[in-house]
Amino acid sequence: MSEYHNYEKEVDQAFRQLDQRLRKEGLVPNEKVRTFQRYWIAAAALVAILASTALWAIWSTSAQPEVAVSQIEKETLPGQRTRFQLPDGTKVYLNADSRFTYPSTFAEQRIVYLSGEAFLEVAHDADRPFIVRTEEATVQVLGTSFNVKALEARPTEAVVVSGKVAFSATNHPESRVVLQPDDKAVLNATTGETIRSSVDAASYTAWTNSTLIFDDQPLSEVFTELARWYGVTINVENPVIRECRVTAKFDDLPLATVLDQLQFVVPIIYQLEEKHILISGESCEKETL
Fold first, then answer.
1. Fold of the 71-203 domain
2. 42-47 contacts, C-beta under 8 A, 24 or more apart
3. Which of 4, 169, 215, 252 holds its CA 20 to 30 A away from the CA of 104?
4. Phi, psi of 91 (to 5 degrees)
5. Virtual CA dihedral for 160, 165, 169, 173, nearest 10 degrees?
6. 210-288: CATH topology
7. pLDDT tens digits, one per residue of 224-269
């Protein structure tokens, strides 16, 4: 209000000077005209004050620096796993040898980036879709739980536990498929084709409870998972062994125990020296553990 009083004093002074000049020249307006002029000038001054105040408010607001959104990265080494929560309440279980990047604050879309494997329990938010981007695929949801695996040199896949998920190749949006509980999608990065199948989702997320499940998988995949899980290197002397298929379940067991159990169902011999394993043996047939 101090600004208004200052303007009013200046207007009064100007009016008095004008009035004296007009009287001196015999051109004094009548009282009604003087009153009208007085109010008109005061109104104009008030409008000027309000306009300048509004402009100042706009300028000061726009001049405020924007809060920078930083990117947070969670990374696990082979043999490590971790759990954490995102700013929106989404829970993330990050498997071994994986990297997960997300913003410190979500905007209109909740976009995160994954390299490796993660299981997510997404907090529901109908106004802000949750998007997981890997090197080759994009997964979009509103509120659900699902597993995403995007390992180097292997097809990207997603398995849904609850809710619905839209899965597509990053460079081939036309490959988009909608997955429901116990649906699995596997992406062919070369063709952009997405293959959908029905699975037992629980077997794909058992790792979050320290359980490894293999369902009629070649030993090549089993060894890859064991190497990531335990943080070791595994070398196979006879390539034929890699084609042997195994169905097995290991509940939070030491690596040596896992290898001992594998020896009961496939003809392999292993040598374990610290973090290095050498596998030898002959061809084998499918077995169940």
1. Jelly Rolls (2.60.120)
2. 42/8, 42/11, 45/4, 45/7, 45/8, 45/10, 45/11, 46/4, 46/7
3. 169
4. -100, 135
5. 160
6. Phage tail protein beta-alpha-beta fold (3.55.50)
7. 999 999 999 999 998 888 888 999 999 999 999 999 999 988 889 9
Q: Where are the domains of the chain?
A: 2-62, 71-203, 210-288
Backbone angles phi, psi at 121, to 5 degrees: -110, 95
Cα distance from N-terminal residue to C-terminal residue, the chain: 85
Sign of dihedral through CA atoms 58, 59, 61, 62? positive
DSSP assignment string, the chain: -HHHHHHHHHHHHHHHHHHHHHHHTT-PPPHHHHHHHHHHHHHHHHHHHHHHHHHHHHHHHHTSPPPP--EEEEE--TT--EEEE-TTS-EEEE-SS-EEEEESS--SSEEEEEEEEEEEEPPP-TTS-EEEE-SSEEEEESS-EEEEEE-TTS--EEEEEES-EEEEETTEEEEEEEE-TTEEEEE-TTT--EEEEE--HHHHHGGGGTEEEEEEEEHHHHHHHHHHHHT-EEEES-GGGGG-EEEEEEES--HHHHHHHHHHHS-EEEEEETTEEEEEE-----EE-
Contact residues for 182 (Cβ-Cβ < 8 A; gap 6+): 159, 160, 198, 199, 200, 201
Give the number of other Cβ atoms within 10 Å of residue 74's Cβ.
15
Beta-carbon contacts of residue 128 (< 8 Å; ≥ 6 apart): 88, 106, 108, 109, 110
Tell me the pLDDT tens digit for each residue of 23-73: 665 555 555 445 545 554 555 555 455 555 555 555 555 544 555 679 999
Name the residue with tokens 């004050």. Answer: 49
